[in-house]
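Tutorial handout. Part one gives the primary structure; part two gives the three-dimensional structure as tokens.
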Amino acid sequence: MTRIVNLYAWLAAALLLMLDAARTFAQEPAPPTGDVQVFRNALETVFVFPRVGPVDKKGELVAAADLTGQVKQALVNLRSMASRVGVSPAHIVTLTLYGADSSLREVLEKSAREAFSDWGPAIAFVEAKNLRPAGALVEVEAVAVVRGLKQGK
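Part two.
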């Protein structure tokens, strides 16, 4: 119970920091990064990666009805998005897992912890309907903070 309370407290603090970052970070146009939201100030760049699903390069569902396969693909897609803007897995501070059913929570959290075994971002689970594309069992969302990233990235 204490672990859950601590996680929620950490997530609430992260949300407050993000809201404050949105007010204080320069609102200059960010370089094109697809759906990634970028906030900057002189010292840090905050990246918000939107809900990323288990799709291939054509946007089609990968590993239909295979939860483990979908989690792996969604995390591969997240890492690919992150690397395009100069973000490594170690920069990811929060990871939100959206699952089609609350019974998937333990499996999703275990898969995410294995994928980030070298770094432990805060992980939260949200039960969500209407995951994309149709038939998806999972989507992932992440927030990353990078200090000293050059403006060109």
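Part three, for discussion. The first strand starts at residue 37 and ends at 40. The mean pLDDT is 79.
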